[in-house]
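Blinded run. Sample ID left blank on purpose so nobody reads anything into the name before looking at the predicted structure. Input follows.
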Amino acid sequence: MEHSPILQAFKYVGVPVFTIASDGSVSHSNTAADNLFGYTNDSMTGQKISHLLPVESVAELHSFIHPPAIDANIRMVMAKSKDGSPLPLAVYLTSWTDDKGLQHAVIVRDISEEMKLQKVTTNELKRANTAILAAKIGVFEHFPKENRTVVSQSWRHLIGLADDDTADVQEEWRSRVHPDDLGPADKIIQVCLDGDTDIAKLEYRFRSKDDTHWFWLCAEISVSQRDEEGRITSVIGVVKDVTERRKTEDSLRLNTEYFRSAFENTSIGHAIIALDGRWLRVNNAFCELIGFPREELVKTNLRDLTHPDDLEDSCKHIALLTAGEIETYSRERRYIRANGQTLWGKLTVSLVRDENGVPDHIIVQLMDITEQRQLAQMKGEFVATISHELRTPLTSVIGSLALLTVMDDEAFSDKAKRLLHVAQQNGKRLNVLIDDILDFEKFSAKQVTFNLSSENIAELVEDTLFTNSEFANKFGVRFELKCDDASLHGSVDVKRFQQVMANLLSNAAKFAHDDTAIIAEVKDVAGCIEIAITNKGDGIPNEFRDRIFIPFAQAAESDNRNRGGTGLGLTITKQIVEQTGGQIGYESMPDGMTTFWFTVPYAEPAEVIVLSA
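Blinded prediction complete.
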């Protein structure tokens, strides 16, 4: 590294340049710097900055740079040479940070012979440009007496001027500054010349050389030289392209404004909560939901407002969240409003981490579902009440009709017998409807208890085919069993399994072509047992496929057969299958085969006890 081409070039640059390491010592110096300060044979390297410049530490040196700037021009510094003699210098200081810490590059100019050196200013700037070219910083120097400006090569590159372009740089610059920014840009040098300040800074828009877009430049101007009477003879400036930074700032500002507007103006309650439960920020909707004014709400925390019956579950989830075991969760919870009433809320909670991945705060979203909960409860109570009120008299009616149809001592006319039969069938259909509605309510509320046991699946399927043969006869089809392994045992609730099979078999029979076979196949698949019911028919319409398991959904009739049904059968079937540990699905081809399948978990065969004689 010590003999790299970069360091070799740096060594022989004619401008006195040296770099200061983070410990305050000279890490590199070129020959010009060595000679200026009176050091030979690289003996300047390793010297403390306090031996060269009137500063005691790197921190004091860095204090000349005022953020967000990364460099500074220091008009006059009384340095000292190796023999202790004073050495007046103009200093250009820049800084950067790498894996070794804070670094500084110092370019110095001996101003004791300033009047003699003015003739070579252009060459000095050109050589200085080599040191700052990599930083893409344009440098210029303006001489007010002659109204003359000298620019560095990097300045020309920054605004898109070629090295051999003969355009007047001042006219070129003025022609491309945005009209709205030209006035302030013109004044930035003048405020220094007027003595209002020694340093000025401005960001302005600048048109590209090809006239296709605008970009942003940041110019920093400082007084460089004065004559014996204190009049300014030179100002020096640096220019940087800050377009990307401005875009980032604009994007951040827009995102911040969008978040603020979305947070404050939504009708959904939003809150930001510290990990210890303190409110960091709440919107108006949240305050209105809870019923507390903002100034009163911040005196509480979410735990204080949670209904006692939901507090344990709430604390458990918050603990999982803050421990990083989950990132988000959603629950229905009850909260106590300011007036003592209970609020049912749909709560969504998400954890936000800082840039190091450490949990920082929690975002809460709360929607009022009190009315929906009340309506759901009222609906459930109404359905249960009506269904039970209908079931008792309906059972009596169906029983009476059945008794009448078997009475031999009463001579009914054929018309009366037909009416009795119709009434009995309609009573049975109404009874099925009531059962389906009650089942649907229970399954939706997950209030059904399953009695699972190990059963031979092939035997169960065979039993259900026999039990439901009435459906096959009614619609002119036949049921057939296909099973390669009759020993398969699954974990099922026998009654509910038969209900699933009845629903699928009746559906298959309703939509099968006349005089076709409906195949019930039992097979061993990866990790479970699959039961598939296949019929040949018109297939499931494309427009109905997304709704097939939705409550009360029924495909449009495609023929004149009265298929009947409540539209709840497949919904109930899906709930039974999934709540007993299985899955359900279907495949259907237009005017072809349709298969509904479901799975049951494996189970060991029940132990058989053989009693000896």
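Unblinding after everyone has recorded impressions. The two ends are 98 Å apart (CA to CA).
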